[in-house]
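wait is this the right file?? whatever heres the structure
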């Protein structure tokens, strides 16, 4: 094989690898609407840490009055430490675009949250009346909420594999917290996947995939309805990359 052929093959291989580098905008985000013009006010129990896991009683335990748009009373449990928090307001760790609404009010949900110590699983519940966050959590999500795998393959390699229902209680699972949401899987480029709830209703029960190309990068999406239904991504996968690359190198070798 001539030096020129080796150089061409090397350059082609490098070009392919650059094209296939994973790119991702991160986990799906719900759109953020403008806040409503009027504020609301609640009295909620507030505590954090030791003894916060005990049921609260008016006149015995601390409470706080808060007011503002889209606030609520919250009960949160860290599944790693088993420590509770009770909050009046809007927690900053709840994913973008999610606020307490009638679809999720009083329904427990669980999700993954990145902390300085690593990724943890949190369970939470919100309510929309005074002192409504007095009780404890069951530590598993309400069965009336759609449950999906939620992860970003760019930073979480496990997301680029087919996932197992045995991961149901892991930090890579979330519930859809707004009406009209379903489970979605997106292949951003190469074999990099993003999974989670999207504020978009699944049509045709997800049997069809949709692909579009922009600036030479193909983006494919597929939705589904049902518990953890976005665990597999066979319909979105590309052929094995190493076979493609070896085939191209072999072709240049025999030129």
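ok assuming it is, sequence goes like this
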């Amino acid at each position: 094989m001539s030096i020129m052929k080796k150089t061409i093959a090397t350059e082609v291989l490098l070009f392919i690898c650059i094209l296939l580098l994973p790119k991702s905008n991160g986990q799906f985000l719900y759109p953020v609407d403008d806040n409503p013009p009027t504020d609301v006010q609640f009295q909620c129990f507030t505590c954090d840490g030791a003894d916060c896991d005990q049921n609260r009683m008016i006149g015995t335990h601390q409470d706080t009055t808060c007011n503002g748009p889209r606030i609520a009373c919250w009960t949160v449990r860290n599944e790693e430490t088993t420590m509770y928090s009770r909050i009046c307001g809007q927690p900053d760790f709840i994913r973008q675009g999610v606020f307490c609404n009638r679809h999720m009010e009083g329904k427990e949900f669980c999700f993954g949250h990145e902390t300085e110590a690593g990724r943890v699983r949190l369970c939470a519940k919100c309510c929309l009346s005074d002192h409504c966050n007095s009780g404890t959590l069951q530590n598993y999500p309400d069965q009336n909420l759609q449950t999906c795998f939620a992860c970003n393959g760019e930073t979480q390699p496990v997301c680029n594999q087919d996932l197992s229902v045995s991961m149901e209680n892991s930090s890579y699972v979330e519930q859809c917290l707004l009406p009209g949401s379903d489970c979605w899987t997106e292949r951003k480029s190469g074999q990099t996947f993003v999974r989670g709830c999207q504020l978009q209703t699944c049509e045709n029960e997800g049997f069809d995939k949709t692909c579009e190309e922009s600036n030479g990068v193909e983006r494919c999406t597929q939705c589904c309805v049902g518990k953890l239904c976005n665990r597999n991504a066979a319909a979105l996968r590309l052929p094995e990359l190493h076979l493609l690359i070896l085939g191209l190198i072999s072709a240049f070798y025999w030129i």
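The two ends are 9 Å apart (CA to CA). so i think its the right one actually
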